[in-house]
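If you are new to this repository, start here. Below is one unmodified record pulled from the training split, so you can see the exact layout before writing a loader.
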Amino acid sequence: IAVGAERVTVAESIGAGHKVALRAHTAGDAVVKYGWPIGRATKRIEPGEHVHAHNLSTALTPEASFEFLPLERPAAAKLARGWRGYRRGDGRAATRNELWIIPTVGCVARTAEFLATAFRERLSEFPNIDGVHAFPHAFGCSQLGDDLKNTQKILAGLATHPNAGGALIIGLGCENNYLEAFRPFLGEHDTSRIRALVAQQAGDEFEEGLALLGELAERANQDTRVELPVSSLVVGLKCGGSDGLSGITANPLLGRFAARLSASDGVAILTEVPEMFGAEGALFARCVDHGVFDRAAALVQGFRRYYADHGQPVYENPSPGNKAGGITTLEEKSLGCVQKGGDAPITDVVRYGERASRPGLTLLQAPGNDQVSTTALAAAGATLVLFTTGRGTPLGSPVPTLKVATNSDLAKRKPTWIDFDAGALVQGRDREETDGAFVELVLEVASGKRARNEQFGQRDIAIFKDGVTL
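And here is the target side for that same chain:
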């Protein structure tokens, strides 16, 4: 099959991003894109015909087995220069120096937002602080077991994040995630950068909260940007609102960057585990050894069981927007999705709420949902997220979230959402030139240039939930 970058007419009118057959298929034949099967023809398809849900279906089944077949691939060229960021006491590097307010429970989420809004009026006193932000959520109480632990791990990952030059943790006082239960999840940390407040124990939580933010600001304002090697950069890789061009333009662009970052001893993080279904062969071939392969296979099998335990088919993933943009099956979506990792070697696999630290590409346990997965990337230590989209979304995570359009039409229509136009790659623009411009933008944003999500206040978190609510 081939994919049209613009609306074309072959045997019939084919929308941009949609597929057209290059050869005849009979019912049951594998349909190949990216060099891998994306499903099977459900009836005869003639050359030039539109290939989509009316004549193509998934070949995925609930069970799958994987074999470790590593491929030798040449190492990518290293990135030529570093960036300017903040070096923290634990050795990690930050792209921003901000104050973050983390509520332990949804009951004080609005209190956290009020404190952030009120303290912004004082930021002119602290020229080295890039901003103050609250991260409201609905959890932290009426949770048990893994749900409660997941909430605690994610919030701890944010409270101790490098981009948080100071973090104010605010609790209510009677929640499951009460402060003393939450503290152990913080692990070893710089105590000068964290303050805590329990609203039920405070005389005036707003007055006391603002005073604690003042203490944190005094500490964070001592930090300045310094020259840092690219090996200190931790980048999350994400796609959302994908279309048929995602795996042709924007995702491979991220993949080439991820490979160069990995070659430079930086860390790239790939998540959205359900969007690995059907692409395991292409992905797992990059595992550096059998141990990493075993953990990667267990990661995917675990999510397959999660679907089965809830009585859901493993192949129901492409959204209505994905389908309108030309994506038909989960295999097709997955094969495009995993290209964000490029040829970077897979060096580690970490669970939801854990931190990525090993140079190379890390696979992170999280679902495909945009808010949940971008939050997980940030909690895993990503100080920057690269987010490709073909349909468009204004979503942002706690960290700078660069939106990369798969097609130029989206970039033109939504300039307040999109940071970079990868659609130029199918309009004749030189790939090396495009890659160079993208690398420069990433390093500029890492060094302080504001991404669109920052300019327009798009910063959200969402936490994975699977169990009962009391």
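Two things worth knowing about this chain: The two ends are 51 Å apart (CA to CA). The CA atoms of residues 32 and 38 lie 6 Å apart.
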